[in-house]
Amino acid sequence: MDNYMKLELPSKSQNEAFARIVVAAFAAQADPTLDEISDVKTAVSEAVTNAVIHGYENKSGTIVVSATLQGRKLEVTVIDYGVGIEDLEQARMPLYTSKPELERSGMGFTIMENFMDECDVISEPGKGTTVRMVKIFGKKEPAEA
Amino acid sequence: MEVKFVRVGSTLIVRMAGELDHHAAEILRTKIDAKLKREGVRDLLFDFQKVQFMDSSGLGMVLGRYKLVSAQGGKVLACGLNPRVKRIFEMAGLQKRIIICRSEEEALREHRGEKDG
Ligand SMILES: Nc1ncnc2c1ncn2[C@@H]1O[C@H](COP(=O)(O)OP(=O)(O)O)[C@@H](O)[C@H]1O
Ligand SMILES: [Mg+2]
What we know:
The complex is a heterodimer of chains A (145) and B (117). By secondary structure, chain A is α+β, with helices and mostly antiparallel strands. Chain A has a single domain (3-136), classed as Histidine kinase-like ATPase, C-terminal domain (Heat Shock Protein 90, 2-Layer Sandwich), CATH 3.30.565.10. Chain A is 33% helix and 29% strand. Chain A is built from four helices and five strands. In chain A, a hairpin with a 3-residue loop joins β4 and β5. Chain A is globular, with a radius of gyration of 15 Å. In chain B, β2, α1 and β3 (43-54) form a beta-alpha-beta unit. Chain B has a single domain, classed as Transcription Regulator spoIIAA (2-Layer Sandwich). Chain B is an alpha/beta fold.
């Protein structure tokens, strides 16, 4: 079963829930567990929220969310054309945030890394940021099996 | 996200229902801060029993309230965390600052015990 989807939406905080629900619904065809779906929802929420808050700094811009399924491998990409990230290593450190005044926790990338099997970030200052994440469903045996 | 406030003694209980993401956290923190000011309470108890989803924006909102409340000598408690919400709390080390309890009853009891002792 190979499939793909692509979603383009303005950087509004209302769209964070919409984006994660769309990706979760798309991923459902690969028969993930409830926990796996929650992992994906949380990771997508983090990436889209970062595009809204950091990428576009709460101003208007376009976010592109796309996903592919190859068998039970889900790949999700979240793209913004915003400010970009100067220091990726620092950005990915647990508890690091460049916006403490907005009550950010600095745990977004840590959650994406923990909840997904892969998480790569490509970013260029002034051009934007792409977050690519992979989740392979069925890696852990279900408890009752 | 829906929210209800209940005051028990010097504690403000925040009963949340729904998904606590960035969008919801922004609205919720404004409501909580207004309520804290108006009610003049000391402590804050977050009831997560009906929260099915939380991401790192929820953590930021809870930590922000912790800073406000603890600066005034109050405590912040949280109860009813599902295993996922609990895992996210612990990833950020929130259990070092926020008192985590099973239920509202336990939170209020524990807390009263601490005050008397
Ligand atoms: N899409 C993005 N565009 C620009 N900067 C970003 C983006 N995503 C993340 N960042 C940077 O990486 C930091 C860490 O992100 P994250 O771990 O999600 O924490 P938080 O969102 O709480 O700040 C952010 O504070 C920001 O500086
Ligand atoms: Mg973030």
